[in-house]
Amino acid sequence: MELRGKTIAVLGGKTGLLGQALVKALTAAKAKPKPLSSKDCDIVDPGSVERVLNKIDPDVLINAAAYTQVDLAEEQEEVAFALNATAPPLLAAAAARRGIPFLHYSTDFVFSGNRTTPYTVYDNPGAFSVYGISKAEGEKNLIALGYDGTLIIRTSWLFGPDKMNFVKKIITLATERNTLKVVDDQTGSPSYTPDVAANSIKLLEKDATGIFHLANSGTATWFDLASEAVRLAGLPCTVEPIPTSGYPTPAVRPAYSVLDLTRFIQTTGETPRHWKDALKEYINQEKDS
Ligand SMILES: NC(=O)c1ccc[n+]([C@@H]2O[C@H](COP(=O)([O-])OP(=O)(O)OC[C@H]3O[C@@H](n4cnc5c(N)ncnc54)[C@H](OP(=O)(O)O)[C@@H]3O)[C@@H](O)[C@H]2O)c1
C-alpha cells in the first residue's frame, strides 16, 4: 500500500516512545498520521475505539499503545492483560470491519530466553513475566481472531527521542556519578525508535501480514549498550558489568532474546543498520538539543 496521503490512526502516537517516532516517520513519508492518547481513545473501551475510528475514518490502524511497565505488571496483572491481551483483538476486529490494515507491536519479552541463538518468527513464546505473558496472549488472541490484514511486529530494547528510555537514563546517571553498574548477562537486540518506525512503514508498504521481528542489527548486553552510550557521550564515568543477581527486579527478564531479522530482510530487501550506528545518531542529536 502506498502510504502517501493516507490517514493513519496511531494509538500511542501522542505520548509513546515508539508511537511518537511512528508519527514523525509517517509525516516524513507524506502520510497523514492521527496521533492518539488514552484520553482521545481508550483501547480497552470498544465504544471509545468505534467513536474515534468513525470520526477519523483511517486507511490504516496502528496500535503502539500498551501496558509497558515490566516490573509493575507483576502486581498489576489485570490492567496489563486488559491492555496487552484483551484490547488487541478488539482493535483488529474494528480494523477488519473497515477492511483496513492493522499493525500491532509485540516484544522480545514473549520469549523465555533459555537459548543462545536468535529467535525466529516461527519460535514459540514462553515468557516468565506477567508483561511477557500478557503480550504473548495478545499475539495469540490476534492469531485466533484470524483477520488477514493483521501485521504483528515484535521489537526489542527500544531507545530514541521524546521519552525516557534506558539509554537516556544511563546518560543522566553517568553525568551524576563516577561509576555505574549494569547487567551483563542479558543479551538482546537494541532498537532505535526512528529506525523501527521507518522499517515498519516499509513492511506496511509491502502489504506484509503475520509476524515479523524488527530491531537494529547486532546484539548487546545492557552493559554493552550502556558502555557505548557513555563512550559516545564522552562522559567521564566508568561502567562496570554485574550479573542479573546483582540487580534484582520483580519481573524475570529473558537472559537471551536476540531477534532474527531474516523475514524482514527477505521481505523488504533491506538490512537494518547496526545499533551502534543508530546509537551514535541518537547521542549526537541529544547533545545538540
Ligand atoms: N519500550 C521497549 O523497550 C519495548 C520493547 C519491545 C517492545 N515494545 C512494544 O512496543 C510498543 C510501544 O512501546 P513503547 O515503549 O513505545 O510504549 P510507551 O512509551 O510506554 O507508550 C505506551 C502508550 O500507550 C498508551 N496507552 C496506555 N494506556 C492506554 C489506553 N488505555 N488507551 C489508549 N492508549 C493507552 C499511552 O498513552 P497515554 O500516555 O495517553 O496513557 C502511551 O502513549 C508496545 O507494544 C510495547 O510492548 C516496547
Automatic annotation (TrEMBL):
It comes from Pseudodesulfovibrio cashew. Pathway: Carbohydrate biosynthesis; dTDP-L-rhamnose biosynthesis. Keywords: NADP, Oxidoreductase. It catalyses: dTDP-beta-L-rhamnose + NADP(+) = dTDP-4-dehydro-beta-L-rhamnose + NADPH + H(+). It is an enzyme of class 1 (oxidoreductase). Residues 11-285 form the RmlD-like substrate binding domain. Catalyzes the reduction of dTDP-6-deoxy-L-lyxo-4-hexulose to yield dTDP-L-rhamnose. Belongs to the dTDP-4-dehydrorhamnose reductase family. GO terms for molecular function: dTDP-4-dehydrorhamnose reductase activity. Signal peptide: none annotated. Its EC number is 1.1.1.133. This is dTDP-4-dehydrorhamnose reductase. GO terms for biological process: dTDP-rhamnose biosynthetic process. The lineage of its organism: Bacteria, Pseudomonadati, Thermodesulfobacteriota, Desulfovibrionia, Desulfovibrionales.
